[in-house]
Structures are given as C-alpha cells and as structure tokens.
Input
Amino acid sequence: MIADGHAVDVGVELVLRHREGAVGVLTLNRPDKRNALDLAMRAAIAEALRALEADAEVRAIVITGGDQVFAAGADLNLLVDKGAQDVAGLDLGQYWAPLAQSRKPVIAAVSGFALGAGCELALMCDFIVADVTARLGQPELAVGIMPGAGGTQRLVRSVGKQVASLMLLTAEPLTGERAFQLGLVAELAPEGQALPRAMELARKAARLPPKAVEATRRVLRQGADLPLEAALALENREFLLLFDTEDKTEGMRAFLDKRKPQFNGR
Output
C-alpha cells in the first residue's frame, strides 16, 4: 500500500514538534491521508529535524506518526505524471539530509503501516521501536517503481538478501512481530505502547555523554560498509579521542565514587 492522498489545506501543521525534557518529539500529522509523504510533508519533516538539531536542550529525537499509522508511503499524486528528469528535479534526497546528518540519536516509534517512503524514513533512524500493530514494507514494485531512498540497501543490510528480496519482490509487508524476530525492529511493544517505550529509550540515550554518543553513531554508520580492519581502525581512533573529553573523566569518576555522573557534553 502506497498512499494516494491529495494536498492538505494551507495552514495545516503537517508535523507537530515538542520537547519533553531532553527528548525532542516529531509527530507526522496528516492522519486523513495516512501521513502520505508529499513535498510539503517532507519539507516539514526536514524543518522540524533541523530545529531539534539546533536545540541545545535536545539530546535525542523520536519520530512517530501516532497510534494508527506511521506513514503509508509517498503521495502518488506527486509522482504519477512525472518522468525521470521531473523526479530528478524534485531532488527528494534533500528532504532526508537533516535526518542523515543528525548528530543526535533518532528513534522511530512505529504503530500501524510504515510502507514505502514511510518504511524508508523509519529505516533511516538509528533504531525502530514498533508495536504489534506495525506493518513494515516496501511495496513500490506494485505501482511500477522501486524504492529510491535507501529501501533496498538498508533492508538488505538489516535483514539479509533472502528476506529483503521477499519483501521487495512480493510487495508483502512484515508484521511487527516478524520484523522484530528478524532484527529490523529493535524492540516490540504491546499495542499502543511503541511511543511510550521509544520515549523511555530516548531518555536513556539523552542521559549519556553526547560526544561518546556521536562517536558511537559515526562508527556504526561508517564502519558498517568498511572492511573489518578499516572499521576497527575507525573504532580505535574514536575510542582514543574520547579520552580527551571531560565527560570521560566525569563518567569514570562517578562510577568509582558510586554516584550518578553529570555529563556536560565537553
């Protein structure tokens, strides 16, 4: 299923953004169109992510679509009459750049459908928390195209060739439970509990030292496609650099003193 919604009325807030302590929450807000990702929606996501990235009080981010649907896919009205050059001119990748470049952990909280571009959005996050109602899939072949924002490559890296091929070549989504069993989803929550659990995990991430978090995320992302020796060298470099941070000393002193650390991000 790929969404087929039309443009929403001018003035509708397509993405809701707020902060709970050190966690920024981004909520997709086009429920009448199952959060279909048209250009306005993509631009609103990018703007919200840039704002949360710039907020020094925010140390982790959660993206959700609510209890009924995460995002059912691209808005086909955006694409149906366009040729290759027209779509290239849209430069759809620009809208995902703030997420790809985020220095802060980003967690997807998925209930209901996360399909097509919606699934790709979830896959771009550091990890996914889903509830038992979740359905994750890449059904683009059913409308004559294929994923174009990382759906093939992130899937095959997450679940392997066999399952990625099944999902892509049959257009069948995975249930939340199956996605969890295969490692596509990091944690499976009861119905309606994906967002609360994602918030709980985001608060834990937000309490950790920012420089160590950034270094770990860099190694995870950059090292995954490197030969093992190169990836180990990257890990060792980041490991050593953290010994020059104040938070390293604070974390170790707090552990030895049997107290909670007070990390300052330096």
User: Anything to note?
Assistant: Strands lie at 15-20, 23-28, 60-64, 69-71, 106-110, 113-115, 127-131, 135-137, 174-175, 187-189.
